[in-house]
Specification:
It is a single chain. This protein is an alpha/beta fold. The protein has five helices and four strands; from the N terminus they run βαβαβαβαα. The longest helix is centred in the N-terminal third of the chain and has 12 residues. It is globular.
Length: 106
């Protein structure tokens, strides 16, 4: 199955997005902020949850996909809009979608 990233995986919309993607047999990755929220996202069905407040979260997601990135991003958290380009984050975030087909996460 395809790999899907859900940002804000602990919120209500993120929770349902994770469940829907998992039900469609996608490999689901998610972001959350904090251990309790990460556990909520895991309970919803995310295979891996990274804390978006920690440095290196994009690299952890890329490593989890063996560098292939994700097929789709459900950006519930508006995370892409929060990442500062001068930190390299926005470029790295888009790297998750590079060459995956479909619309680019921009």
């Amino acid at each position: 199955g395809r790999t899907v990233l859900v940002t804000g995986g602990a919120g209500a919309v993120g929770h349902y997005a994770i469940q829907l993607a998992a039900a469609a047999r996608a490999h689901v990755l998610a972001t959350a902020s904090g251990a309790d929220k990460a556990e909520d996202a895991r309970r919803a069905g995310a295979a891996l949850v990274v804390d978006r407040r920690e440095a290196g979260w994009v690299e952890r997601l890329l490593a989890a996909t063996d560098g292939r990135g994700v097929a789709r991003v459900v950006d519930v958290d508006g995370l892409l809009l929060e990442v500062e380009p001068e930190e390299g984050g926005a470029k790295d975030y888009r790297e998750l979608r590079k060459n995956r087909g479909g619309d680019a996460a921009e």
